Amino acid sequence: MKTIWINAGELSGDMQAAALLTALREREPELAAIGMGGPNLARAGQKNLFRVESLSVMGIMEVLTALPRALHMLSRIKKEMARLRPDAVVLVDAPEFNFRVAKIAHGLGIPVYYFIPPKIWAWRTGRVRFLQRYVKRLFCILPFEPAFYAKHGVQVDYIGNPLVDMVNWPELEKIEPIKGRIGLMPGSRRKEVEALLPEFGKAARILLQQGRDVTFHCLRAPNMPEEKLRALWPSDVPVAFDAPEDRYTAMRRCGCMLAASGTATLETALAGVPTVVSYRVA
After folding, report:
1. pTM of the model as a whole
2. CB 31 within 8 A of CB 2
3. Higher model confidence: residue 128 or residue 191?
């Protein structure tokens, strides 16, 4: 029985990696998966030795404060990888962390594959030399990426974005938005939610003070407890919190969305819902 180690560095990668693992296990049902992930990879059948939520950070101050924790985790990953000797390591996005995991696996003689590689065509192109040395093959989700990587001599395949396959287009088109419903997606990282949700609440209060006939519906990430979100939301502003099974249906029921910049805004675009994109960093 073959075993792969999937290393997702954040919850958006966990969601996309889960779709990848599901497809792999359809082809090879006996395939075992271990590594670092979140609830989506766990549901897809991976044994998570490390939790993605303990690493998900954004912004320079968060990265600096999380550095000791990340280094400790890398040390533990090296020990577990050496003990378990998986047949392959699949890295998912999160290059700042996963480049170090690539070095660990390469040093142990384990082949490394990269799913959703870093956007080096946009910045820090020199990182392509790292990929040439430590990664056996890339799997890209954007159609123009293979030509770029192939030009640099990196083995690459274009497989498309798993999020697109998660959208049930015929069913979504039938859903009419609920009049006046505004959807909220403040993110999945603790720090970004703490920064954004109170601001979303202030915006909601302004709309209500203006006499707008609107309601607010927050689509919370699975890792984010409702009580935590309620503590960040103005107590005088009505809101519903939900972690829906079908996120796209929940989005589609909204007339518009207020969302954190990132994978959430790709999801709202796929659902065809007008979105105000926002972000706040330290």
Report:
1. 0.80
2. yes
3. 128
